[in-house]
């Protein structure tokens, strides 16, 4: 197999100096996941990556990208020495993009970036080789890392681009040199750094600045800020998706079942039927955006629609699992793992999915199967964050939920606003609730865990899994 980077190519790309001749077949920033033959990039974050260079080389790294020779590492070790490691990674990413033949799709939005990226990966695999960002690698180091890993022979590349503050998206989009730019939606996320939804929309729309000549923007029509996005795309070709009649890809009807979403859509008057293997109205809308991307790339629409149906939600983003409590008597509960992130829009979507799910009666200690929600704080919502948490109590889908447990100081507002019949436990931190995980669920229940990453409700996901065995019938995978 041809190497991803040779010492000569990498030195030319970065302007650095290679101490030896080497070949790398991958690029890594973490010794825990590094594979033999990877180029280790010694980024500085919570810890200085230079402290791990010796361990990376011992684990089989082909070389290390560094700004100095680390202590305990021989001067003749395979190193690529540059003035600044992050700038070196960015240069490597730009060079990786420049030599690639791939058509590049950039994805941004307040909600659904990673799920949509994975939808696109699944959809594109039937029509060529695909390189896509790992996990949520969508920031100032994640985008260049994804580009540095891009094989020159890939047919498609899907780049996730995120932001926490103004001015972050456009430079990353320009680095990626996009053929298609997809904006999933604009919602109340990262409000602490922006002056309302219009400010978020203007920042998200800067992804359009990364389009190559002839590139296409794919935009949602149903938002109050959709005109902001459309104005930003006025100088380029655009395709739209949504429920509006004006949308190029119009979603006509959505039916949620226990384990699927059935979508009726129209494209220029022609009807389309799409079935996704996971319930969620938000998933259906993301799929409309993916079908618009398929048209932007002139792909076969029938193959694209079929392959989208194979997509499964990744872990932490709506993945569903059957947790077997007793294999002999076939006693189990269902777990919906949506614990990676949360804002009002994504929480509303998750509650709709839970409300549409059907528990099993007559199998547990409690006669009736229950819908249970474990909800953690939604972070980075700005000055109105307390009111946004209380407002969740008015969500109509809560009526179908038996018990709601709340985690975090902000979720105390929701807990106090709930009717007593639905009010479960409130705790300030996830470990406090984790200690009582076994008392919260029963066979036949369906349990949703949702919250921002920082509140660590993912600990509850792990704790609930440990109550039994994950069934091989689990729906969804990383």
TrEMBL record:
The EC number(s) this enzyme carries: 6.3.2.10
Source domain of life: Bacteria
Keywords: ATP-binding, Cell cycle, Cell division, Cell shape, Cell wall biogenesis/degradation, Cytoplasm, Ligase, Nucleotide-binding, Peptidoglycan synthesis
Domain spans labelled Mur ligase N-terminal catalytic: 24-91
Domain named Mur ligase central: residues: 107-294
UniProt-annotated binding residues for ATP: 109-115
Catalytically driven reaction(s): D-alanyl-D-alanine + UDP-N-acetyl-alpha-D-muramoyl-L-alanyl-gamma-D-glutamyl-meso-2,6-diaminopimelate + ATP = UDP-N-acetyl-alpha-D-muramoyl-L-alanyl-gamma-D-glutamyl-meso-2,6-diaminopimeloyl-D-alanyl-D-alanine + ADP + phosphate + H(+)
Domain Mur ligase C-terminal: 333-452
One Gene Ontology molecular-function label: ATP binding
Enzyme kind, highest EC tier: ligase
GO cellular component: cytoplasm
Biological pathway: Cell wall biogenesis; peptidoglycan biosynthesis
InterPro entries xrefs: Mur-like_cat_sf (IPR036565), Mur_ligase_C (IPR004101), Mur_ligase_C_dom_sf (IPR036615), Mur_ligase_cen (IPR013221), Mur_ligase_N (IPR000713), MurCDEF_CellWall_CoF430Synth (IPR051046), MurE/MurF_N (IPR035911), UDP-N-AcMur_synth (IPR005863)
GO biological process: cell division; cell wall organization; peptidoglycan biosynthetic process; regulation of cell shape
Compartments, record wording: Cytoplasm
Recorded family membership: Belongs to the MurCDEF family. MurF subfamily.
Main function: Involved in cell wall formation. Catalyzes the final step in the synthesis of UDP-N-acetylmuramoyl-pentapeptide, the precursor of murein.
PANTHER family in UniProt: UDP-N-ACETYLMURAMOYL-TRIPEPTIDE--D-ALANYL-D-ALANINE LIGASE (PTHR43024:SF1)
Full protein name: UDP-N-acetylmuramoyl-tripeptide--D-alanyl-D-alanine ligase
Naturally occurring in which organism (per UniProt): Rhodobacter ferrooxidans
Lineage per the UniProt record: Bacteria, Pseudomonadati, Pseudomonadota, Alphaproteobacteria, Rhodobacterales
């Amino acid at each position: 197999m041809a190497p991803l980077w040779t010492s000569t190519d990498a030195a030319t790309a970065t302007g650095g100096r290679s101490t030896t001749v080497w070949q790398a077949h991958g690029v890594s920033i973490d010794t825990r996941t590094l594979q033999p033959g990877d180029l280790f990039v010694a980024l500085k974050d919570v810890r200085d990556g230079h402290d791990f260079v010796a361990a990376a080389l011992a684990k089989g790294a082909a070389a290390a990208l560094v700004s100095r020779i680390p202590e305990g590492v021989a001067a003749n070790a395979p190193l690529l020495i540059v003035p600044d490691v992050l700038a070196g990674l960015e240069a490597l990413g730009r060079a990786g993009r420049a030599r690639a033949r791939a058509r590049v799709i950039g994805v941004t939005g307040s909600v659904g970036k990673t799920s949509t990226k994975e939808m696109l990966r699944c959809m594109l695999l039937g029509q060529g080789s695909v390189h896509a960002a790992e996990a949520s690698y969508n920031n100032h180091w994640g985008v260049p890392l994804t580009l540095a890993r891009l094989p020159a022979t890939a047919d498609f590349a899907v780049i996730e681009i995120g932001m926490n503050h103004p001015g972050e998206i456009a430079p990353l989009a320009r680095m990626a040199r996009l053929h298609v730019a997809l904006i999933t939606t604009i919602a109340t996320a990262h409000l602490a750094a922006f002056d309302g939804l219009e400010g978020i929309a203007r920042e998200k729309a800067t992804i359009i600045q990364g389009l190559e000549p002839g590139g296409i923007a794919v935009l949602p029509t149903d938002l109050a800020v959709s005109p902001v996005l459309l104005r930003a795309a006025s100088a380029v070709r655009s395709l739209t998706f949504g429920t509006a009649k004006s949308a190029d890809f119009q979603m006509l009807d959505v039916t949620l079942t226990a384990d699927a979403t059935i979508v009726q859509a129209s494209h220029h008057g022609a009807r389309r039927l799409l079935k996704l293997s996971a319930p969620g109205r938000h998933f259906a809308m993301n799929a409309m955006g993916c079908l618009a991307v398929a048209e932007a790339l002139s792909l076969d629409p029938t193959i694209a629609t079929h392959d989208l149906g194979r997509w499964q939600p990744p872990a932490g983003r709506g993945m569903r699992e059957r947790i077997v409590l007793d294999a002999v008597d076939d006693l189990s509960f269902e777990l919906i793992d949506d614990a990676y992130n949360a804002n009002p829009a994504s929480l509303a979507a998750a509650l709709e999915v839970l409300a549409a799910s059907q528990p099993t009666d007559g199998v547990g200690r409690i006669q009736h199967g229950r819908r249970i929600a474990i909800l953690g704080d939604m972070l980075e919502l700005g000055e109105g964050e307390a009111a946004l948490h209380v407002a969740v109590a008015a969500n109509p889908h809560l009526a179908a939920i038996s018990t709601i447990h709340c985690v975090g100081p902000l979720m105390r507002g929701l807990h106090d606003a709930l009717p007593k019949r639905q009010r479960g436990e409130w705790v300030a931190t996830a470990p406090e609730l984790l200690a009582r995980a076994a008392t919260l669920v029963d066979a036949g229940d369906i349990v949703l865990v949702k919250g921002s990453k920082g509140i660590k409700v993912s600990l509850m996901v792990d704790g609930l899994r440990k109550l039994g065995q994950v069934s091989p019938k689990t729906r969804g995978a990383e």
